Amino acid sequence: MALIELRNAAKHYHAGDEEYPALKTVSLKVEAGEFVAVMGPSGSGKSTLLALMGGLSRPTSGSVLVDGIDLGRLSPNRLADFRREYLGFVFQSFYLIPHLTALENVMLPLVVQPGRNGGMRADAAEALRIVGLDAKEGRLPSQLSGGEQERVAIARAVVNRPPLILADEPTGNLDSKTGERVLGLLHGLHADGRTIVMVTHSRENAEQAGRTIEIRDGEVVV
Amino acid sequence: MNLIHLSVQNVLRKKGRTFFLVTGLALGIGAAVALTSVGDAMNREIMRALDEYGANIIVLPASEDLPLSYGGMTVTAVSTGGRKLSMDDVAKLRSIKNAANVSIAAPKLLVAAGIGKRKALLAGVQFPSEFRLKKWWRIAAGEKPAAAGEALAGTEAARLLGLAPGDRVSVSGGTLRIAGVLAPTGAQDDNLLFADIEWVQRRFQRPGEVSLIELAALCSGCPVEEMAEQISAALPGARAVAVKETVELKMQAMHYFHRFSLGVSLLLLIVAGMILFFAMTAAVKERVQEIGLFRAVGFRTGQIALVLLAESFFVSLLAGAAGTAIGMASPRLIAPHLMSAYHLEFGFDPLLATAGIILSVLVGLAASIYPALRASRLDPVEALRSL
What we know:
The complex is a heterodimer.
Chain A: E1 4-15, E2 18-30, E3 35-39, H1 46-53, E4 61-66, E5 69-70, H2 76-86, E6 87-90, H3 102-111, H4 120-130, H5 146-158, E7 164-168, H6 176-191, E8 195-200, H7 203-206, E9 211-216, E10 219-220
Parallel strand pairs in A: 3-8, 3-9, 6-7, 7-8
Antiparallel strand pairs in A: 1-2, 1-4, 4-5, 9-10
Helix pairs in contact in A: 3-4, 3-5, 4-5, 5-6
Chain B: H1 3-13, H2 15-51, E1 57-61, E2 67-70, E3 73-76, E4 85-86, H3 87-92, E5 102-115, E6 118-125, H4 127-133, E7 139-142, E8 150-153, H5 155-161, E9 168-171, E10 174-182, E11 192-196, H6 197-203, E12 209-210, E13 212-217, H7 224-234, E14 238-242, H8 244-286, H9 288-297, H10 301-338, H11 350-376, H12 380-384
Parallel strand pairs in B: 6-11, 8-10
Antiparallel strand pairs in B: 1-13, 1-14, 2-3, 4-12, 5-6, 5-13, 7-10, 8-11, 9-10
């Protein structure tokens, strides 16, 4: 069984009275342990595809299954539980909470883990150590560089040890050198057995993945 | 770290926003507490003044003897047997359960006195108590009686009897000097002569005798009817009557003022609550991405709402404490300058302080529930706007 499976999944958005298809009927599979790049021009539906895979958005039609779980059938709270247990998100804009330290930002997914009483700090510190930021755990995001913020975001994505990492343009706001470092981290996580789905518009980055899915105008072309 | 920690961090690290929210709500709470505090103090002062403004209990002998009217009330004027009131009864009033509520006791001995060729009603009174009871009395001519053989004439009695300050009249073998003439009162006092009660008791051979006792009782905390019953029980053979019209007028005045101050306090709280509602709604809007992130990393809707409501709780608690302190301190500072005509006393009211803080928290939470619930249900994709 594939870890991720989209079956004729489509997503339409509404703008006033108009409806536009962000993603037309898409069927694809991602096996456990794969490193998949999703490529396409701006507005092609890459991020929408990622949102469907991550349960952040429900398909307008069709179904999205992750580890056999039909995300469309889950309530909002069960979807939240699913994201907490299965997923780690890495966003292009990092989305760190500005008034929490690096360590506290990484601890966020652990705060709402059921049955979690202790060890949050230790786990978060370990995640920061993996991304090479253990010396800066007390810094606020404003006191970190772009690359460091992205690494904190990666640490937050992996702190709860999810089997699936979804990364949306993780190097989009970084210089090439920092971008390479971040990609290296993702490769390290992949080597640890995680499934990585990375949205990118960089062919160079896509070539570092094991497989590339190309999207154009809301449809998978490759 | 836990959800409450997130809330506290948000409150502590966003000092500007926290200050704005706390200030807005604190001002509303402070104004409401101050108004309530001033209202209570004014109520007490007004009640005290009203309680001493005229009698609200009349003590009469329980007798059916020949009546003389006094302001429409039946009193015994001729002794045909049966129990009379005495000065000892005035002292016994201090033994009833609510003796502390008896503010003024004004005994009277009413006698028909021959003044020249006419008869007039002469009231023996204790002038200090009488002037305290009848705050509307004004001396139109002359002065207040200062000695036992001096008298006051009501305006009509002076006119009909041809009396002026300084005149001397023979009454029952003695001489009364008219010390002063009262200004018109529009009531029965215009037709009376008033002299010291002990002088009247001696002259008319009625040692210690009293026709009736007028009482000004403090109404707050004790129904006047209950006091009348206590007096009737303490003075066998006497009848205590609550002057209900007076009591009800006073209670109404207190009621209206109380309602007015409550109404204004409520309005202020609503305004403070609306300020907080709009502030929280704006705060939620500016935190849309943060909330979207919470959803993305696995926060349930209830957990997001809890974070936001906990923030509101802390802000409201701070505002309640600050507002209550301001509300209780400001009347003490302002009243002596703006309300010096009133003798207002402000004590520390723990109940008001607690109510102010609780009210602040309730207003804060009520104002935040809708924004918090709305925020918790935000679409994560729309919130994050990058997916």
